[in-house]
């Protein structure tokens, strides 16, 4: 029997919830990846091994609210670098910069503390999933407003049919994703 690739192993532990949060949506639930300690280690190690090498190692990891916090903080810890949260509007207590982006219905705003990164910092931007790419694009813009260089956007899941990963790549952001749900 052929051993599973990391991607296939992780895919087996992502739960698909039909018709949530709306009819016709196939929601990709990553919580089973986090619940099993062996699966969680494989997931984190896939990111850590990529980013510990010379040229790929960031100065800081930025995680997008909220599941990007789970991944980003653990990856930052393992890499021995700092972690900064990019939060939904109104959640950070200090001076912030803001970026508003469009959602399917309306818009949302994310914020970052003005002292979260320094000009020239190499930042890994991480989230659980790329759908339309709006949240990650907003995070990238926030980090760049403060003079940081976003070296790569990383996520567990890519939903390429929603166009987000292509939009992010077209903006010049390199992407690393572990599981692609194209056509599924």
Topology:
Layout: H1 6-11, E1 15-18, E2 26-29, H2 31-35, H3 37-51, E3 60-64, H4 67-79, E4 82-88, E5 96-102, E6 107-113, E7 122-130, H5 134-145, E8 149-158, H6 164-170, E9 175-180
Helix pairs in contact: 3-4
How would you sum up this structure, described in words?
The chain is α/β, with parallel strands linked by helices. It has one domain (6-180): 3-Layer(aba) Sandwich (Rossmann fold), CATH 3.40.50. Helix content is 32%, strand content 32%. It has helices spanning 6-11, 31-35, 37-51, 67-79, 134-145, 164-170, and strands at residues 15-18, 26-29, 60-64, 82-88, 96-102, 107-113, 122-130, 149-158, 175-180. The strands form 2 sheets. Strands 5-6-4-3-7-8-9 form a 7-stranded mixed β-sheet, sandwiched between helices. Strand 8, helix 6 (164-170) and strand 9 (175-180) form a beta-alpha-beta unit. The longest helix is centred in the first third of the chain and has 15 residues, at 37-51. It is globular and about 50 Å long. The mean pLDDT is 96. Residues 33-158 form the Phosphoribosyltransferase domain. It is found in: Cytoplasm. Belongs to the purine/pyrimidine phosphoribosyltransferase family.
